[in-house]
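Input record (one chain):
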Amino acid sequence: MLYKDTVILLYAKAPVSGQVNTRLIPDIGEAAATQLQADFIHQRLQMLSTARLCDVRLMCAPDTQHECFQQCRQKYPLLLIEQSGSDLGQRMLHGVKQALKHYRYCIVIGTDAPALKAGEIQCAINTLHKQRDVVFVPAEDGGYVLLGLHQCYDFIFQNIHWGTAQVMQQSREILKQKKIAFTELDECWDVDGVKDYQRYLQLSHHKEKELKNKLHSPTCG
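The corresponding structure, as predicted from the sequence alone:
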């Protein structure tokens, strides 16, 4: 591991039919939306496993018992942690508080930002190591896809309209009010609607094509 003082909290909903990627269901159907969630989880964990940046905790909702989470526990180097709290803010706050009891730095990400690469996560970790208080990767839709902390500021997780286009701006405003320094890295997109889903399919196709090209490229003897 590159950073023994850091942990990544990956927040994930279990791929339960009708309960995940609900905005996409009218366009792609329940089965595809459910499979997409499972794919998101495995793709993100595969990337983190390959990158070997730091320890990973899979923050599971509603609990850790779903078959997908149990498969992840067997396949990847991680801990399964049950999410605790009535809304996203409380669930993140609880996870970060617990994590920072054991690690100096904490990175919070979700599963629905397939364009977020390991290099960008490493950049966020390095930013924290440069004594920055808070680091974000903003989302194109007004939220954020990564939050990094070395201290748990409760107010970051309170009075935020989660799931709206105001999340990032509200976070900026409260940090400025509290005079807490923060850094924003380059924006990243996540998957909310059908246009994002199509973008994801194009990205996946591109990655598959790159992999095939590597497998069939000649090697030097």
